[in-house]
Amino acid sequence: MSDVVDPYFPTLEALDDSLRRFSISPADKRMLLGLARPTAILSSAAMPDADIPLGQGKIGGAPDIPPGMIWPEREGYAAADNWAERAAEARKNKKFTKEIVEEYETKAVLAARPAPLIFLMQIDLAACAAAGPMDPDIPKTGRLLLFYDFVFDPGFGEQEQEKAFRLIYLSDEAQKLERRVIPDFGLSVWGDLLPPEQREGEARQQAQQLPPALIHPKFTYTLPHFHSYPMMVNYPYPEDMPHLAWDDRLQWPINDGCQLFGWPELVQYSPAIDLGMEDVNAPHYYDLRFIPQIRQLAKPIANWIPLVSIMYYDNDSVDFNGGYYVMIRRTDLRNGDFSKAVIVFQTD
Fold it and tell me: With CB atoms 3.0 to 4.6 Å apart as the test, which of 144, 176, 220, 258 could cross-link to 123 if both were Cys?
């Protein structure tokens, strides 16, 4: 048996054949194949933004949006006073450099007022549909655009309240789009103070965008990660899921760390669990009651699906240090309502 498993399975038959080589029982194999999800792996290739065709899927760079569309903004943060307090303390404390004081002062001003969100990704859904038979609830045409406030990287509750994440569906064709100049966020993508030589022109725009990379969708079927809901409730710790040895040998190319739908690699347990529990106002137990509790909440938890997952991509400077998961209720997806999607960050 090979030490590694090619992670691409264009058909369920190909996935079945791969599982068979790992002596998984027929019953477990039937269960796993029933859970398999169609997935578009958003394979990436770093390149200058100018070389990426208008409207094509990409990570970073500048977005392609309709001429009349207003760039998404967040609201001012309710916790902006915290940055003002940090700035005041830094001014008093001689251990802080002049640059740190200036950064805190700048953040205090920026946090208190509305500001543009940083462009993260655009996904060409027609290209994903052409790669293979995706989930029927995902549109087969148009584009998904993701914007997020990396400058302050707010927590889940705060980002909802201040509208610090936006998932936008565009049905416009490529000829109706324009590559928009990136607005000034006041700081770099990651919230660092911009040096004087990067505060205007092309240098400023490059400092305020993620490194651009072209997306080429590749189709496969994926199986649940051991932190997923079905594996947690059916094979609770210390039990191992039946395909653990197979999963451990999957070898993904280093440029294939983002995906549309499917079962993503999870850093912690599935965000769908907490989101589903919140929908029904269920109390959170972090003890032996947890697994029995979530077994009773299968319907609201299953309603939340990972629409887009972002772990890594082809670039030489960005390390997300975890995973970003764009979660949406399947009921909202079926209704074409992308405004209720949320983004969850997980790190170890």
Answer: 144
